[in-house]
Amino acid sequence: MQQESSSTPKPVAIIKAQVFALVNACPAGRVTTYGWIGKALGYPRGARMIGWIMNDAHGDVPAQRVVNSKGELSGSWAFGQKGRMRQLLEAEGVELLSEERVDIKRYGWDPSRDLDPNELRHIIETTSPDMSGSSKRLLFLLQNDPASPLREELRGTEE
To answer: Taking 50 as the threshold, does the pLDDT of residue 8 lie above it?
Structure first.
């Protein structure tokens, strides 16, 4: 079980909610990537950050729909059971090229490309902050990891 932080800096709560809103917008039977979600939110080099946020996902986020840029099921370990991510995708009609890889050209859903610009803006602008808290690990990574696009912005905030 993840240890929750008592307070989540507001930018993190907003970005986390926006990530989850875009993942929820990804249609069943399609997959998106960490990079596409990051790009749609204005963080074109934020794929790693999106992965950290997805690790904090709760049950109502269809996390199985997020793969890496090669279509690999890179987050499958987070599902608690070997093969569970694959099973969830196959149940949605996604055929895998191999046990751990999706044909990204066939099943890929890029919110910047596949959503109308007004619809994308609406999802991003109307999403309420996720006040459920964030794991201490997520906050630490966002504040300290050199790959975090929020590192400077969050410097000095509470963990």
So the answer is: yes
